[in-house]
Amino acid sequence: PGTSGGRAYEVEIGGKTIPVVGTYGEVPADSVGAVINSDGRVEVAARERSAADLLSAGVGTRVSLRKAFPS
After folding, report:
1. In sequence order, what are the residues at sequence separation of 6 or more whose Cβ sits closer than 8 angstroms to the Cβ of residue 7?
2. 26 in helix, strand or coil?
3. How far apart are CA 5 and CA 38, in angstroms?
């Protein structure tokens, strides 16, 4: 899970867990990552691809942001 302000988070989109990263550059090529921007909003992006296509997501797809707890 990624962190924002020292807190750990994870994002789930359409039943798939997406890693939260600090910057877009941390998302590996052809992968999806989530960034919590300076306004506290979650942005989902893919490098060199469409995040929507990789996740089979569109308008109405459920997105959840939750605190991650250590396993």
Report:
1. 67
2. helix
3. 10
Contact 20, 10 (CB under 8 A): yes
Q: Name the token pair of 61.
A: 């797809």
pLDDT tens readout for residues 8-48: 888 999 889 898 888 889 988 888 999 988 898 889 999 88
pTM, two decimals, is 0.74
Among all chains, which residue has been given the structure tokens 């997501």? Answer: 57
Closest C-alpha among 69, 25, 17 to residue 46 = 25
Q: What region does 69 belong to: left with phi over 0, alpha with psi -120 to 50, or beta?
A: beta
